Each structure stands twice: as structure tokens, then as C-alpha cells.
Amino acid sequence: MGDESWPTTEPTTQNVPQRENAGTETGDKFRFITFQDPNTIKLKSIQRVIRSHGAKKALEGRKKKVTESTGNFRHFKTDRLQNTPAKRHSHDYKAPGDIQQLDPFRSLSISNSTRLQSLITNSTVRDLCETASQALEPVCNFAETTAHQKFHRLFHDGFNDAALSNAIMLSLSFAANEYHFTQECVTFKNTTIRHINQRIGAALDPKAVSQMIGAILLLIGVEWRLGNKPRVEMHLTGIMQLLNFCDSKLIHLHDGIKRAIFWQDLNAAWIIGSERRFNHKTFPELHWGRNPFLSSIYTLPPGFEPLQHAFGDDLVTVIEDVYALQHFRESSDMDLDDSTSLIHMDNYQAWVESRLFSHFLATDEDNEVVLCCILTLYLCAYMLFTDIWAGHFIPSHISAKLLRVLRQVRRDVLWEGHKDALLWCTIVGGTFAQLGVTRSEYILLLHQSGYDAIFPDWKETESFLGNFIWSNKVFHTPGKAFWEAYSLH
Predict the structure, then answer these.
(1) pLDDT value at 106 more than 60
(2) According to the 3-state scheme, what is the secondary structure of 387-401?
(3) Average pLDDT over residues 450-474
(4) 470 in Cβ contact with 462 (< 8 Å)
(5) Which residue pairs from 315-319 have beta carbons closer than 8 angstroms and sit at least 24 positions apart in sequence?
(6) Helix (H, G, I), strand (E, B) or coil at 150
(7) Contacts of 309 (CB under 8 A, 6+ apart)
(8) Which of 25-34, 77-86, 181-190 has the highest mean pLDDT?
(9) pTM of the predicted model as reported, rounded to 2 decimal places
């Protein structure tokens, strides 16, 4: 991190472009200035004012012509659709005028509170809660509804740390701009990196290591959303060095910091293909193992039996673990205030999803049926419990990746040979696909498969899905919504 030349601009209000009030008297007309001394107009300061005002009026004229010619239309990039949150809420609620009225930010005692409040302008309360939560995933949260990864449990007085507070503002402003990297984001990012480098260059305070790691993890979250693989891997290397420093100085890190490291590393690997530095066995705090008293639930669902040989023993074991996770979710209700249960569930998903990713990397690209099943299993494992993290990036990315592989298999004779398993993959992928193009493509794929000739209604369909991985308790509502959309076409 220290090898790069980072700008050192402080994030003040002067650095943020301010929208001018075009409706004012001075905003709509030229100003005429008289001088008693004719030589005054030759001064450089006066010349700069004249040139600036002239350029401003010329720009306003061009904007006016563009507005008149385009009417109510505006240009945007189609790839923005891929980063649109999966859930949209109606704008029935007005944003509060006082930032302290909003639950997620009651503890945000940072200096740039004016900018933080501006982030909620023209947003609903529920939209902001969702956006803020997803922006900070999987590092921390401010939610009062879950006992898992709360900010103050991980970082204590972390808002007094300049690097961490700027990293939080970077993440929030990035999300508020629909994950477009603005000049404001550049400023927050550069300031975060400058403070990190200052800390590393000086005698590192052991108490500040957690805040530094948190700031770097938030930087990684921004970088993988931007698709910047080299920068992500550079920051992960920096975290490894900090962990080695902690070991050498016998510094204890909060368990939640290690969980954040693991999940951020895995998420980045899925999204941009970065090399993993950590896995489910790296941190003892993430250990999980089968319950020996419930061995009967670790079985292979009957739908997978024809593919058992193609899967191999290790992948079959993972599938059995996912099936047991489904049983666990259907037979119990999670208490979000119970830290022990949440940690157990987090460890369970970590061990399942980490191994599935390893199998995905190790599977030959020509073995498309197995690849489809691995991706679908990952979707199921992720969506079986989203009370901790409900971000849309991972499921929408996996669903889109699965769609590409399914299209390839559809043109192959393998489709008919493994039709049941591939239909399960298609329905699960469509259930958790983002609304829009991806969801429509799944519907088209189902019609091309002739699926409607097999099961005419949803009840029979859900019974069929039960032969694989499918939780009626958790998946029923989104699954039925997808089926109804499919039935309308």
C-alpha cells in the first residue's frame, strides 16, 4: 500500500462540487461591473472573474439546448442495471431532517456530518437503511435487529480513527451514487489511504490495528465492486502483513474482524476472481463441524444420486452439509439477539461456501453440469440464511454466472441426460436473479426446455424441487413469484 503515490486531499466541503442555484438573479443574468479606474479591469483577479463568468454562461447555454432537444430523456449506461438493488421500495416516507433521527447513523459522530446528512436527501428511510447496510457488508453493521458484527463491538471508538471514518464515508457515498465512483469518492479514498500509510510509517499503535484493518476491508469492498483485481489483492496482502504483526506482538483481534476478513476475501474472489488469501480453516474462530448426534440429516438428496459419480466424494459431502443446513433452517427459528446461534450459522455457511468455491475452481470448464450444480448450491447455501447479510451483489452475480453456463448446456446433449438437475438449477437461478434482463432470460430458458409440459402448477413444481435443495419455508415466496412471472409468458 505504501508503494503507491496517493493524493492527500482532505475531505472538506470545498472539495465536493456544490450545485448552484440557477434560479437566482445573478444565476440567470450577466453582471455589469463599473470601475472608477480604467486600469482596474486589467488586474488578473478581475480577468479571472470575467473569464469564469463567461465560461459559466456558455455552459448553461449548452445545457439548456440539450435539455430542450432531449425533453424527458437522459442517457445512461446499460451496465448500471447490473448494480441496481434487487429490492425497490415505494417513496412513501420522507427522509428526516435530523440525521440523529435515523437509526443506522445514531452513532456516526464524525466531523463530516453535513455530508452524511446530504447522503439521505431524496431517499426514503427504508432505502437508506438497505443501502447503508449493503455498503458496509460484510465488515460491520449499525442495525439494532441483529447481534452480529455490530460496529461498536468490533471497533469501539472507531469513529475517532480518521482512516476508518473516511473509509465509512467512502462506502456510504459510493453506495449513495449507485456504485458510481465520483470525485467525492476519490477524495474519501485518498484520505483513507493517506491516514493508513501514516500509521504504517510510524510506530504502529496496537490498539489501532483493528481500525486500520477495518478501513482496509472497506477499501476492498469498494475495489471489488469496481472490478479492480490488482488493488484488491494488494490490500489483502497488506492485511496479511498486519495479521503477522499482531501475531508477533501478541495482539488479540476481535472475532468479528476475522470474520470480516474471511468474507471480504471470499466475496472478492467470486466477483472479480482475485486470489484467495484466507479460507475457512485460516481462523480457529470460524471452525465448524458436523453434529455427531444428528448424523441422520447429513444425507444426499435423491435428485443428485444420478450425478453422484460425477461429483466425487468431497463434493457429495458438501451437498450433504447444505441439505442438513436446509433441515436446520426449516426446523428452527433464529433468534437474532442470540450471538451464539448467529456465530454458529455464520461458521456453518463459511465452511460450506468456502468449499463450494474451491470445488468451482477445481472443476473443469467442460464439466458444465457439475459447474451448474455448484453455482446453484452456492445460491441455496447463501440464501438459506440472509438475516446476517442481505446484500444483493453475491446472489445476483452467482445467478448471472449460472445463467451463462446454463445457456451453454442448453445447446448440448447433456441437457436431456441431466434434465431434472438442470431444471432445478434453472428455477433456483431464476428465483434469485435480479429483476430485469437476467430474470427474463431465465424465463425464456425455462420455456425453451419444455418444462411447462411436465409440471403445470406451482405445487407440483415445489414438490419436484424438494428432491434437490429447496426450502419451502425460506424459498417459497420468491420461488412462487418467479413461477408466476414464468406462467404469464
Answers:
(1) no
(2) CCCCCCHHHHHHHHH
(3) 88
(4) yes
(5) 315/359, 315/370, 315/374, 318/352, 318/355, 318/356, 318/359, 318/377, 319/377, 319/469
(6) strand
(7) none
(8) 181-190
(9) 0.76
